[in-house]
């Protein structure tokens, strides 16, 4: 099988799974009085994609997921905020994975990704409303990012353990 075609199929599956997780997440009401707080379920796919496809193709997964979920379940501002958070989160997680390889856990990578996702969204919001006082809001979101990042990291780690037992990704590297 053509490796490029196989990569395209995996890439399409990742976008589809991330979109489904975005939809599922939109159905889960969080009992928190904090606007914009989410679990971050699509980040499971972002982490798995980073580990299996690398950052350039994961960038496509993140942008496609944000645009599609924004058009389907959100609006213009949700796209802008999600892109700010998603791109900063991807950048931070890709740097961590690139420079630490086996020295840093996937769970800690996920926690830093969750924190940076919130930071990216708050930076975008601060630019939109032209005030830096929203950075205080980031401190609250940062504490919420730790348990959600932990959950996403554990889930991604376990999913990778299951995927490593298959031959799905052996074709990508050949």
TrEMBL record:
Gene3D superfamilies: 1.10.1760.20
Signal peptide (from-to): none
KW Membrane (keyword) present: yes
Xref: Pfam families: Hpre_diP_synt_I
Keyword Transmembrane helix: yes
Keywords from the named record: Membrane, Transmembrane, Transmembrane helix
Membrane-spanning ranges: 6-24, 44-67, 79-99, 106-128, 134-156
InterPro entries in alphabetical order: Hpre_diP_synt_I, Hpre_diP_synth_I
Identification of the protein by name: Trans-hexaprenyltranstransferase
Organism: Acetobacterium paludosum
Lineage: Bacteria, Bacillati, Bacillota, Clostridia, Eubacteriales
